[in-house]
Amino acid sequence: MSYEQRRGWGRGRGRRGRARSFSSQYESGSVENPRGGRREKPPPHLKGREIGLWYARRQGHKSKEKERLERAVVKMDESREKHIARLLNSVQAQNNNERSSCSKGSWWATENERNNVSPQLRQPASSEVKDHDWDSEYAAEENEAGTYLDQQLREEMQKKRTNYKYLEMQTFREKLPSYGMKEMIIKMINSNQVTVISGETGCGKTTQVTQFILDDHINRGKGSSCYIVCTQPRRISAISVAERVAAERGETCGRENSTGYQIRLESQMPRRQGSILYCTTGIVIQWLQSDPHLANVSHIVIDEIHERNLQSDVLMAIVKDLLTLRSDLKVILMSATLNAEKFSQYFENCPMLHIPGFTYPVKEYLLEDVIEMVRYMPKDSDRRPRWKKRFMQGRMIRPEKEQKEELYRERWPDFVRKLQTKYSQSTIEALETADDEKVDLDLIVELIRFIVLKGEDGAILVFLPGWDNISTLHDLLMSQVMFKSDKFIIIPLHSLMPTVNQKEVFKRPPPGVRKIVIATNIAETSITIDDVVHVIDGGKIKETHYDTQNNISTMTAEWVSHANAKQRKGRAGRVQPGHCYHLYNSLRDSLLDDYQLPEIVRMPLEELCLQIKILKLGGIGSFLSKLMDIPSREAICLAINHLMELNALDNHEELTPLGFHLARLPVEPHIGKMILFGALFCCLDPVLTIAASLSFKDPFVIPLGKEKMADARRKELSRNLKSDHLTVLNAFEGWEYAKWRGARAERDYCWENFLSSNTLKMLSNMKGQFAEHLLNAGFVSSRNPNDPKSNNNSNNEKLIKAVICAGLYPKVAKIRQSLSKKRKIFIYMIALKSPHIHCFSLGETFQSRKTTSRIQLQWMNGLCFSPLQGLHT
């Protein structure tokens, strides 16, 4: 579609919009409220789930009425109208079953199912047919189908009880602590609208509570009315838990069975009734756009609420309001820690239940114990006082962190004196020279060797803050002859890895083979690796912090909280007595926070503000005030102002047409604007590639010791364009060509150019998802990012750069020449007072650090290269 055609299509939309104004007299008597005036309430005789179905039917009526009003009007005489009415009535009698299936919740249907559903045929003389007659007909039909399905589900359950695999799994389930409290859990959930359940890691709450609910409904003959949705904070946990539950029920995941999962770009959906769906929290929030009452959901389980991620906090606030409209909806909040009181108070002091876990005793070691045991001395040690090495780091961004560091410095001399009575001088020297701002991977390698040679058998689980640490440790281990043998299985585990690879972590190795899992905090609570005996806690966790004064976000490795440390300890000792090695000293341990800060108070709020408006949750400030922890007024105002500058919100904080489309795209608003420009200017494919890399990560990897080689290859791929964005584009296009040539060519291309094949595949999937959104919004005519009509200008390099700048503005920088001999250029930017080029940027590669202005290490440490945080030059 050409640019001129798009303009003509837009004008056509305007004509249809004006045509609707001539039908305003019909809108006042809509299906939702035939008499006009205040909103109609459900009939008083309806109770429980019937109220939710009533709202769903009303919403369906309203959508169909709106569709009817937007159609072209055709006039005909009375006899012709009666003839057509008779034909429609005869067809309608043959399609009752189709009508019943169409009335099911849209969030269960796939995109193809929704597109293929036939619209409801309407009665011609609506004044002669009352709403409650149609409702009665529908209710009778629904009850008949429900009774049959209830019986079918009960018979299916009875058959399972004779299945060997099911009985074997049942024996395992009965050993879990949660199973012993089954009746108590069911009774509490059935008696209360909201229930908080806390339980130690491994007690079985995530896998068992949902099954207790479903089995109870099936046994009581109410299986068809049970739709359980359990949210998970991570993709891997949604998949792994769903597959585990399906196995326990003697089934496979999805395929019209009782258990399934849905995550971004991947799903195995269960049957529509009498089922359990595990999904990421964002999926449920997306459903709310089309089904604000979640009419088909009978139970919503929000798991891992103790992590306090942004989406879970938002979902809890939405559900809290929804409970006033859905008296039949059951909400179960599940936490792995004992801070359940706060969640209970948030939901009007709802009842709480704690499931005690069973683990074998776990012996804990701190850093001084580990160093003494391994007899380790840091490489390239420096006898400078530890606080001088890091005094400036983070000071301008995290003042509260510096307060802790100041206290740490004051207590250090007394701490060392106490150590002298218990530990050797070499251990004290190692502690004084260690840089505890970084995770010492060499120490971890030595500790793993020590465990292998002198420790008990069993899997080793290593916690590290990020993928860079994981990949580096993996390479360090594989560089040693000991770990190259077939006696070891080393598995990196990260949320960005393909789900197929992640499943390997749950398999037990053969006898005589030791499994070593290197993971982020994803392995703290989201998944359970039941054969772990040794846990190595690196003591760090990646966190994003937003500085409102400088309008910058940083993702840095912060110290874990006591709650994190407890969870990590709990991963050992599930099969036998275990060991947990914390790589921080006892002084640091005394200064750790009890819990992590909630994401809502340390993250930018632009995306959340758009979500609030697209879900019609009211004013931004008023909704945010309903959250368990309220963001600062400064952060809220800054987000609103940014969206107004972006023209996503008007002066009344309402969505503009641009804002509406940005809210529909699952990316940060500036990236979304860039995507829309790419569609409008017909350079879609390259812009989608750049947008995917900005919202996810760039595909380049930098192996330890090969930094210069990686930089050289990156520079070659740039083709002297001096642009990070276009370099990623060139790398991606080269990978697509290599993939077309075959698997070996693809592997060689990635190896030679220091590219991650997994990341490139993820970027390709994301491009397809973005194109799907654009197709649904009417910006493109095909879901294929390479569609010729959408890429007439994709070879225009200047246009692509203009689209990038227009979308990301004002997060752009301009270089100005300087007359100074010391500084050859200045970097000027509206959005930041002190802009800085990332150390891996091509801007830094082509210009030495002496020629660029104000490049300071504390700003480059962990700086995320994205439009909210980095520069685009």
Automatic annotation (TrEMBL):
Domain Helicase ATP-binding intervals: 186-356
Cellular localisation: Cell projection, Axon; Cell projection, Dendrite; Chromosome, Telomere; Cytoplasm, Stress granule
Keywords: Acetylation, Activator, Antiviral defense, ATP-binding, Cell projection, Chromosome, Cytoplasm, Developmental protein, Differentiation, DNA-binding, Helicase, Hydrolase, Immunity, Innate immunity, Magnesium, Metal-binding, Mitochondrion, Nucleotide-binding, Nucleus, Phosphoprotein, Repeat, Repressor, RNA-binding, Telomere, Transcription, Transcription regulation, Translation regulation, Transport
Catalytic activity, reaction form: ATP + H2O = ADP + phosphate + H(+)
CDD domains assigned: DEXHc_DHX36, SF2_C_RHA
Molecular function (Gene Ontology), one example: G-quadruplex DNA binding
Sequence ranges of Polar residues compositional bias: 21-31, 115-126
Pfam families (UniProt xref): DEAD (PF00270), HA2_C (PF21010), Helicase_C (PF00271), WHD_HA2 (PF04408)
Annotated ranges, domain Helicase C-terminal: 443-616
InterPro entries assigned: DEAD/DEAH_box_helicase_dom, DNA/RNA_helicase_DEAH_CS, HA2_WH, Helicase-assoc_dom, Helicase_ATP-bd, Helicase_C-like, P-loop_NTPase
GO-annotated biological processes: cell differentiation; defense response to virus; innate immune response; regulation of translation
Identification of the protein by name: ATP-dependent DNA/RNA helicase DHX36
